[in-house]
Amino acid sequence: MFNRDKNQKEKLENLKLKNEEKTREQKHDVEQGKKEEKDTIMQIKKSELDNLKNDLEEFKAKSQEYFDRFLRLQAEFDNAKKRMQRQQQEFIKYADEGIILELLGILDDLERSVEARETNHQDPEAFLKGVEMILSHLYEMLKKHDVRSIEAKGKIFDPTQHEALMQTESDEFPENTVIEELQKGYLLGDRIIRTAKVKVSKQKETIQENKKLDNNKEVK
To answer: Nearest Cα to 191, choosing from 132, 142, 139, 150?
Structure first.
């Protein structure tokens, strides 16, 4: 009886030890599994981090490349701008030079004509004809450069094209009409470069009213 209880007790002890061993093994397996899972996660995170680092390095390289390209384009743009400014200045300079050379040619003709009259006692009619030819050359040069005179006489006064220096009564022309051109005005293309100085017709009553206004201003 004693031996049987002893054997039973030993069996229980052995079973308990086996269960404890099994529990330890299971616990070890669980911990090992967790460790492996953690290692796997860490490996994945490390791989993702490495990929992000690589992407960042590529982005930095691309950014530097784009920045360098931007600097080159900026430098090219600045150089092109300076080159265009120089070309524009040269164009203006040489355009003026061309016009001046043409004017000098006309001036030479005029000087020769005056010199011939003084030294050879040229006939006044021939001298006048020579001057008219020189004027004709001058008009041709102005026309070539798109310079033309403003029509004034007989036109209704236009303050954008005409400058009234005088006013006078006239029965021949309607009021506010240009009756005399004192100095020609000129256009360069469609742009006015000099207004025409003119005399404008006014009715007698208008002139008297203007004089009265002027006198009142002087009295004040």
So the answer is: 150
Task: Determine the straight-line distance between the first and last CA of the chain, rounded to whole angstroms.
Answer: 154
pLDDT digits 0-9 by tens, 154-201 = 999 999 999 999 999 988 889 999 999 999 999 989 999 999 999 999
Does the pTM exceed 0.70?
Answer: no
Residue 180 CB: number of other CB atoms within 10 A? 15
The answer to whether 155 and 123 have CB atoms below 8 angstroms apart is no
Read off the amino acid at residue 74.
Answer: Q
Q: Which structural domains are found in the chain, ordered by start? A: 150-220 (2.30.22.10)
At 91, is the secondary structure helix, strand, or coil? helix
Using alpha carbons, select from 177, 193, 212 the residue that is nearest to residue 142: 193
Helix 2-120 / helix 124-144 crossing angle, nearest 10 deg: 170
